[in-house]
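Let us work through a complete example step by step.
Step 1: write down the sequence.
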Amino acid sequence: MKNALWLFLLLIAISGIAFGYVSTDRNAILYPYQSYSFWVYDEPNGITVNLYYLGPTLQNFLGEFKRDSLKKPLKQSDQAVYFEEVKTWKRLEIPSGYFERAGSYLIEFISKSEKDYTLLLKTHVNGALVSMGESVFMKLWDNIEGKDVRFTQIVTGYTSPIPLSIAPSTGIVEIEKSRIVEETLFIETPLGILFLSDSLRQEYAQRDPLIFLTDRPLYRPGDIVQARAVLLDSQTGELLAQRSVEVVIEDPLGREKMKSVFQSDSWGGISFI
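Step 2: predict the structure and record it as tokens.
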């Protein structure tokens, strides 16, 4: 048994030396001034990263987003970012300057042992969905100036995307929940494409609502966000003091970034950074 354990550990060590490892963030979204980072382990022969700009339209993005596996485009890469030797775990970063154009990028990672690809979306627009009854209300804004952004096209569903016949506009847009497929919305704007996950299918009527406030309306990557929330009774609207509240924060692709349990104070409030 002991010999088998040592053999197992030896095989792990050998495989790490022989093959190396690249850990990428697939289907990532980059906002203004944000760089793209990934992890590399044990690539003494070096790793090369190439960028392919696929285009600015929603069709460019969805054409790759629906693929089971990403493949290198026939076109030449727009940029060979760099070549670097890595002998231990190391976090590498592609500066934001390489992603000046809004739209879709395919990133190619080349090492001695393998090739890997990931899809990235660069956008200058952000947005939010709020559920009320049988509808969701969408609002879009410029990530740099904070101004309202006019959308040009909305598509729902990722298996077989369906265009929604909604007239382009700015401000708050109402969308019936019954029209949203697979809880996803892809929005095309002059400032880029936005992916919003509509995780609003659950019934919230029996839940006590939280009203969130932040210290300012607009942030840049790396800024500290100070948030406060007030817990209300869903039936009476009264403040709920000394209650346990679980807060989950997700990115636009539905990936969990924070999950914590808080205790509301005597005024029904919770605060966190």
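Step 3: interpret the result. Residues 2-19 form the longest helix (18 residues).
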